[in-house]
## 1
Amino acid sequence: MTRKRIILNIVVSLLLVAPSALYAAVSVSLSPPFIEKLMPAGGKLQDTISYTNDSDTPMLVTVDFADFAVSDTGEVSEMPSGTDATSLARSIRISPSRIQVPPGGRTSFRYSVTAPEEFTQLRSQIFFSSTPVVEDAPNQVLFVARMGIPIYVENVKAAPADIRVHELKWERAGDNDERLVLKARVSNEGERNLRPSGFLEVRSKDGEFAQTFPFNEGNEPVLPGQKREWILSFGPVPGGELSLNLRFSTAPRGMFQERYSIP
Amino acid sequence: MCRGGQQGAPATVKGEGGHMRTNKLWTLAISIVLGVSGSALAQSSGDSITVTASNLGSANFQISAASYSFGIVQSTGGANSGGTQALTGVATGSGATFTAPSATSWTARSAPPRTIRIYNASFSSDINWGTADRLAMRVPVTNLPATAVSCGFKTFTTVGDGAGGCGNGALVRNFSAGMGINVRTGNLEFQLTVDNSDGPGTNTWAVVLTAAGF
């Protein structure tokens, strides 16, 4: 991710999150949206997660943990806390576990992690359930917003991420073939996460169209040992022959780059 | 290196071993880390290292109402009484079904963008007639990316997310807040069934919409 894009994201976050939040009955924000920590075996750390209630009602916030897995196609699945081999549940504590936050209120949840003596990567999802405090009504449905913040703890001695690209396939899609769809099959042979970032440059043969699209805009990680079948969409792009330049990170110091010609 | 370019067929590339080390980029990455996050690479008293460069930003989840009331409903169908909006129950012979096609809307946003998933994790109800499963909910794909798939109506007690895809409580899949723009808005629909055998009274449900990332 470039410096320009990081700054843009921060600005967008300030512009989009705060003003629109004022108009929702339930509006909760958590920062950071995900946590990745490097720790030595037996190490300890503490940090905070910021919770903001921009709702027009008080929120009773409760915290719970869950283990989670990510399928080959990127679907998050939740499992009971402490049941998966990669669970961080035994090593993490958070406080408070229950608190009422007034409208416009902000609070911090402090968590601490004590790393076990042997591990490569541990992970959990920290869920914040926000229950509006409202009066009862007949046959009423109460809306509870439950947001999950994934936390990954990786051993400093764990091997860095190593993304292998097994197959890339380009297709045109959309009503007028105005989108380029990349179907990618990759795997992570390392022991740490990597959120591949990069770009796709698209140029028409006549040179009239030239645009750069971000790669992995959803900021998805490839987890250790994971095989991913990625479907990424770029566009709109014009018809006719296009030349593509795809470049994305595959390791802390590694890049994948290929050029293609699309008829 | 240039591959593909086969006329009339999608370009397929086997990219095994397509890595390229780029020292220049690594230098740039270090400067971004140092420039953006003051705590990046900071090391404490020797037993922990904190890396925060990649997890800046925030995630926001909104629901346009705190609650929704069906009001008083009858197993014979017809108009409800005193609810959030006027509904007309459709008689089924054994009871009636009340459908609220736009009970509320939700908005998920994230900066930086990220992929999230929305599913049902409801757990709380106070039932005085019928059963908890008389309430079902659905997220249609209206306004969502073309790749989104609605998982149809899920009953209130269809919880959890163990199977992925449309399994268990999944309300919508192939959805992300952050492909192209970093905000997505969708609707939540409800369906309430009242049977002839139900007694009078009122119920309450706490519907838990879960948005989980990775």
## 2
Amino acid sequence: MPKLSRMSVSWVVRPLVGVLAGVPLGALGLLFAVAVWPALLVPAARAGADRALTRLLALERARLARWMGHTAPGRGGGPGFLAAMGLLAVLGGYLCLNGLLLGGLFLLGGLWELTWGGPEPVHLSWPGVNVVTHSGVLGLLAGAAAVAASAGGALLLGAAQRRLADRMLGPSGEQLMRRRIAQLTATRSGMLQAVDDERRRIERDLHDGVQQRGVALAMLLGRARHAADPSLSGELVAMAYVESRRLLDELRSVAWRIYPVVLDELGLRAALTGIAEQSGTPVTVHYRLERRLPSEAETALYFVAREAVTNAVKHAGAHDILIVVSRDEHTVRIAVSDDGRGGADPAGGGLSGLSRRVLALDGVLTVDSPPGGPTTVAAELPCG
Amino acid sequence: MRLILADDSVLLREGLSRLLQDAGHEVVAAVGDAGALLEAVAAERPDVAVVDVRMPPGHRDEGLRAALEIRSRWPGVGVLVLSQYVETTYAAALLSGDGDGLGYLLKDRVSEVGDFLASLERIRDGGTVFDPEVVRKLLASTTRADPLRRLTPREHDVLRLLAQGYANAAVAERLHVSLSTVEKHVNAVVDKLDLPRDPAYSRRVLAILRYLEGFTG
């Protein structure tokens, strides 16, 4: 059989061999599903049945990988798969096998006729066709047709078996890769979109806050300089001074909104505490991590917390907010819950941008915010 | 004069109103979006409407579009468009009509109170006022660079001020030269750039700006 696989026609021979090999294996699988599977119910026989199941599944996987080009890295599959595959493999394989046998007989018969048999003319008479031919030629033609049909059938059956394996054993390595590529493409463009959205927000922050205050300040000073009355001009200068303090406050808060430096310097715990301190509403922080996370993870979690807190205060009218950061073996999780009136829109500007950021780190952002509240915004990121 | 202010920032509306009232003008309405602006202009027919380019709901160019509508529906109302950034595209949109009673300034200019008030008066009187920054950009980006190179540095200065909308007397004052000297320079500029010799002052400004824009008009 390995010899066959090296032939140039291997693309049709391989699935054919695979299909044929599937017949006995399928029969075994069917037998297992019918006879041994119920034994799983008997505690004493369970270990043996489990072993048989594992072995049969391994054989099926090997067959699929060797002859059908299907590698399933997943660990799916069970008696149900064996039964379904067995049925498909036995029935389909049986048909293919018969087709091959029939074709072989025709071919042999035709050859025999041509070499040793006396030529027997055969009259073919169909509407529009009237031919006198040779029984040997006819036999060869019929044989070739049967073999070709079997090969085609084997290809189809192979495809069907791969489909079944995809569905029940889990996707193949190639499929997984394709999915991953599609996911990476999507999150990459999502990330760019998130960057652009953030820039738009920063521009709005600067335009609506800093620049307006700057113009207002310049206007006050302009009026002061233009005022004829010294007492009025003194008053305007005093107002300008107050305005300049406000401008500086605004500038500081915009800079903070763009990126809180404390995140780099002192880490997520300190940055979250900062959110709690700055918020007018009570915010409790439970931080249960021992070590610091990679910077991009800390940043993502920080922005999730800040957006959720801002929304809770601004839109949900919350009185009490709880931030919990925890981790298990594979994931780190932040959950921000509030007692506000809910109704947060996951597709809204802030949350959707955050979702893109989290997705780019292979994480998930979930927003649970029924009308009337309460709201929980949670992000999970994979880690170490 | 009677004025309408349209700016979505309350802070700026307030500041600007005070500034104008200090100078003895009457602010008949101060609104925060384009729709309210058009209603107020329809009701009050002010001398000049001061309009911020960016206004709700889209925060894009709603103010500019409202300004264009005011100019086409109420030609007697002067329009001063204020913008945080100088966009020659906005300038071009404003220049597509005539330049009578039209202004386009950077928002920061309001702090130069004297100039700002003078600009408003020029607009009320049917003049044209363009921000030096717009003119600078047009001069830098114009495709008509060759004829410009034939101007002397002094003629260049004169052209810059003419494009901003200053009349000959004001140009003379700014450059500290006599009126007749300015007139001589103006003639030289008009000749070298092949501009129409139009007696109407705002049309001359418009012609210069269109020339710099690369318009054929």
